[in-house]
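Troubleshooting: if your tokenizer reports a length mismatch, compare your output against this known-good record of 186 residues.
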Amino acid sequence: MLFTFAPAWLLGLLTSFTGAPAQTAPPAAPAKIEWSANRPLTWTDFKARPTSDQLAALTSSTIDAKVGCVDYQFSAQVRAVFTPSESWVRNLAQASPALLRHEQLHFDLTEIHARLLRQKLSLVKLDCEKLQPAFGNLTKMAFLTWQRDEARYDQETNHGLNAPRQQAWDQQIQQRLTQLEAFALK
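Known-good structure output:
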């Protein structure tokens, strides 16, 4: 599996040889935000227009799983990512810190399930010649479990409006993140 990237210093170097004066443009909003304990969501991350009259906000996050084989060696990269262009808040002026915390915990749940998938992938031996359907079945179950957890979270907290249940979920999610620390991205 090959990952290609262009470091910022290389992009700067390439533009400095064009002969044109360097122009500073405002930084573009990231297409996706990778989960990080040091980078909580802010309301400015929610860029989309509301798509429902029923909700005050919506977090669009997913588990991005990439796999491959190099010299018949299986490797995987699993990340929890947030998509600003699909996430929204209905009324920013009325958006509370409690609502933002509720949305952050949706993203945290995504990270929990990304860690669980990393854990499973570290325990199984996948044959590179027969990667499918084994990997497909493994990820299908991981995604179904994650989706059920997300639905249960919203149901039990009434989308964050039930403060005692919201607090209980907050504690549970933090405990689960700590329990799965060994499977966090370094």
